Amino acid sequence: EVSTEDPETAFFTLAKREDLNPEEGSIHHCLYQFTRNEKLTETNKLLCDVCTQRHYGPKKNIKSEKKYVYTNAKKQMLISLAPPVLTLHLKRFQQAGFNLRKVNRHIKFPEVIDLAPFCTVKCKNVAEGNTKVLYSLYGVVEHSGTMRSGHYTAYAKMRRMNNRLSDLVLRGQSPQALETEPVKGQWFHISDTHVQAVSASKVLSSQAYLLFYERLL
């Protein structure tokens, strides 16, 4: 969603990004880089309708593409609506010449993550006054192998039903109570028909390809 109503708050977030010191190789660092403020200059300048109308009058009077005015601008990708379920897809490949190469580097991810530094100050589905948007990890998909072949396995947490999450999904009611701890439950590793109970530390050391979080606050 592009913010055009209030330019003064367009680049404001629910929590200060300046307080972040994300560790390189972590999901926080990935989110920080993805939502960083970018400058659009030179060949990336933005076509400015307001500037064009100031110079040439109403848009209907413009017949030549050369008459459009382009201007320097800033761009930032932020979350405008906090979802009930958060899915993070890690890019596990990179271009190497004419080939694609799988990235096997371990990316650190927490059991509880706060999205507030990556949300707009007017983020929807967040109770007024809240400066935290917390999510609890409940699933991980892992891929082993290469770009041409491999095997997918999953980690899933068996837990009790989250009533607050149901209220958010069914009624659009934002969570009010402060929940900062991971949802309690037992982790399992699933590989085809084989299912085995595992510890949380085993899950956090996996080579995550997809991460699934559910809303706490």
Describe the model.
The protein has 217 residues and is mainly beta. The protein has helices spanning 27-34, 49-56, 163-171, 200-204, and strands spanning 38-40, 46-47, 70-71, 73-75, 79-81, 85-89, 93-96, 99-102, 112-114, 119-124, 134-145, 150-159, 185-191, 194-198, 208-215. The strands form 5 sheets. Strands 6, 9, 11, 12, 13, 14 and 15 form a 7-stranded antiparallel β-sheet that branches. A two-stranded antiparallel sheet has the order 1-4. The model has no long low-confidence stretch (mean pLDDT 85).
Task: Write a concise synopsis of the structure shown.
This protein has four helices and 15 strands. With 217 residues, it is mainly beta.
Name its key features.
217 residues; mainly beta; 7-stranded antiparallel beta sheet; two-stranded antiparallel sheet; 4 helices
What is this structure's SSE topology?
Blueprint lengths: L26 H8 L3 E3 L5 E2 L1 H8 L13 E2 L1 E3 L3 E3 L3 E5 L3 E4 L2 E4 L9 E3 L4 E6 L9 E12 L4 E10 L3 H9 L13 E7 L2 E5 L1 H5 L3 E8 L2
Parallel strand pairs: 5-10
Antiparallel strand pairs: 1-4, 2-3, 6-15, 7-8, 9-11, 11-12, 11-15, 12-13, 13-14
Distance between the termini: 22 Å
Helical percentage = 10-25%
User: What about the largest sheet?
Assistant: 7 strands, antiparallel
Helix and strand string, N-terminal first? HEEHEEEEEEEEEEHEEHE
Roughly how many Å is the radius of gyration?
A: 22 Å
